[in-house]
Amino acid sequence: MVFFFAVLAVGMNLLGRKLTQQNVMERNVVTGRINAKIQSEVDSGNRDAQAIVGKAFTQRMDEWRSLYGDKACPKEVQIHFFTEENETAGRDQSPGLKLGEDTSRICCLYEGERLIGLAEYRFKDFSYSQVLLLMNGCILISAILVILYGIWVFGKVILPFHKLAEYPERLSKGMATEKLPETKNQFFGKYVWGMNMLSDKMENDRQTIRRISDDRQKMVTMLVHGIKTPTANIKLLSEAIATGLYDPDGKVNEKDAELAGKIEKNAGDIEKLVSQAVEATNTVSIEYEPKIEPFYRSMIEKYVREEYLKRLEISRIPFCMESEGDPLVKSDLDGICRILRQFMDNAIKYGDGTGICLKMEKTQEGHLITVSNKGTPLPESELPFVFNSLWRGSNSGHVKGSGIGLYEARVIARKLGGDVRMRAGDGETMVTLFIPL
H or E segment at 264? Predict the structure, then answer.
């Protein structure tokens, strides 16, 4: 846009200059023609300046204007014959252009080879300088207004939308924890409202899926325990029949023994199916494929700040972040952010609200990211089970959850070649993510 106004200004100035030069050439032609008429009068011996001007210019004014136009014709002509006092000064004059209130031209009058006077031609100012000045001023003001408008659009529309455009991607990857802040901006009010509705819908869907998984686990567990006892009884009865325990003579009937063996085999198959059902119920499928790329550790810090600072401020939970340097991490940023989301959410839900701290450091083996929170920690006996699927600790009675978050974190960490671990004691719980170099 600035380039457009620059080209426009240059073009207008070149056009004005060309028109001015054309007007100058036309005036030179008219001046030459009129001055030739005046010189012929002088050559005839006429020295009456007023009479010469009247005969060569005033009486033929309409003719000159019809031939060359009003702009090219002078508005006034004056003749100055030299006297003895000003003759020396007059000899120093030379034809040329004099710019003042009006545009003037001076032509010499000769008698033979002797300079005897000067003819002054005064024109209206048609140099386009005022028009060009006005146009340049308008172009400059327009350019300034357009630049200011562009800055306003960039600050109010483009820059906010650039930040908003990242939200759907983060939402789809499970990285978004906070809703978009409500705004009175007429450009994005409906977009923010719609994205927050989508966020609520996705969260409700996740909760529904987790609740269904929990209900499924309970139902299968009930069925499993309900099937185990009859199956065990069937096996015992089949063994008794096979050994002839229920025969009146105490003898083994071959046909009964054969049927009892088949019954026992089918009962064993049922027990295997029950065990497989229990194993499938206790395991949740986590869909995740890592994309290993190098990035700076400060991007992790940026994610945590953008997603949790406002939330922690509203909840009035003190937060600290410790990080030395900004080393390069070769891993999957999205996967690490998903793990940290579980860590931070658990610290907020299960902590006592007196403080959360995030610490990042680099060792010879890899990168360590630790989230610690104050509060009543889990008993030492429960720590080995915290990363199991659908398992919840003894401190989760009053907190909603599904027992999947930490299990998901461990699955992702291991796919990244690392691992997670939890330590608890002295009123503090610490969860650490290890990412190899």
Answer: helix 254-281
- Joined tokens for residue 264: 């026992």
Instruction: Enter the pTM of the model.
Output: 0.54
Sign of the C-alpha dihedral computed for residues 215, 221, 222 and 224 taken in this order: positive
Which tens digits make up the pLDDT trace of 271-292?
A: 788 777 766 665 666 778 888 9
Dihedral, 64, 68, 71, 76 alpha carbons, nearest 10: -20
How far is it, in rounded angstroms, from Cα 335 to Cα 337?
5
The token pair at 146 is 């357009």
Rounded to whole angstroms, the Cα distance separating 352 from 377 reads 10
Burial 309-323 (b: 16+ CB within 10 A, else e): eebbeeeebebeeeb
- Tokens coding 336: 């690490």
Contact by Cβ (8 Å): 282, 390: yes
Q: Collapsing DSSP states into helix, strand and coil, what is residue 379?
A: coil
Instruction: Write down the mean pLDDT value for the chain.
Output: 79
Is residue 105 exposed (0-12), middle (13-18) or buried (19+ Cβ within 10 Å)?
buried
- Return d(Cα 425, Cα 407) in angstroms, integer: 22
